[in-house]
Amino acid sequence: MLRPDAPARLDVLVSDSAAPCGVEAFARRLAATAGDRAATRPLGSRLPAERGVLVLNLPVVAWKKRLVEPITAAASARAAGRPVLIVLHEWADLDWKRRASYAPLLPLASAILFSSPEVAAQFAASPQSRLAPRRRGIVPIPPNVILPERLTETALSRLIASERHRGRLVLGHFGSIYPRKQSSQILDLVAALVQRGANPFAVFLGSFVKGQDDVEGDFRARAKALGVEDRIHVSGYIADDADLFAAFAEVDVFAYLFAEGLTSRRGSVLACAMSGRPVVVNAPETAGAFDHHPTYRRLLEEGRLRLVPTHAGLDQVAEAVEAAAVAPRLPGCLDVDGAWRDALAAVDAVMAA
């Protein structure tokens, strides 16, 4: 058992992706937060003979090409007497084949952390749960971007600003675009705003996920069918946080409509709240969804997150967006370092249990 006053060293497995997703960004920033007692180790590399905790975040980037490497790393760590921590960021949203690929990995874990109570419940209800250890916990997912001290105009920020100057209500939506996130619901929201007499323009700050489905084709076909294709812009992946916040600064209000309502694993929502602009999002399905997450609780108390009912109709959401768009801009203040210390504390606590 690890003593709480002597947290273990961490070897955090990462990919070599030049365009990291939220899970990958979490892994890298977690290691940075732990400082000298942590290191990142590329998947497939030889692990050192140290006795620290091997930390593996799932889902892995490019998982079909990485089926064996996580299992090999975990098996090698356990054979050497090292504990293995799995941080599971998603479950029910994953393709069933992806979930099945984790079956050999789960028995090798010493403990599991989940990105939200909802993901923990999804996993507990699945057959694979019987393969996993009972030592489990919830990690409060922090924002994975850094607010720069100064903002500099970019081509994207100027484009968005020009739409605002035309009198348009600029609706922002940050993060990867994929079906389970229901990003296409924002297209329906744009159409609803038009019907209410508003003049919206939606900017999607992110890129389409690549997979078996034609996510981009379906998205653009939906926009055309709704007659809003001239009211949207998709930026693609934005690598630099300064460029991202320059775009955020030109947004009037952000909006999300998740199938399950807002859950604490949504780091993209936290990032938007850092901009000082309000975020309209549908409420969690369950009470106590943010009990473990100090940052989310603070944002709700300060009114930075404006909740609509979980299954609110588009007209109700549109009304909330219109009200939020004219609200005074709040300071873009968020204790990001404190949020990451909370995440690291959750890691240390579950390994000390």
Automatic annotation (TrEMBL):
This is Glycosyltransferase involved in cell wall biosynthesis. It comes from Phreatobacter oligotrophus.
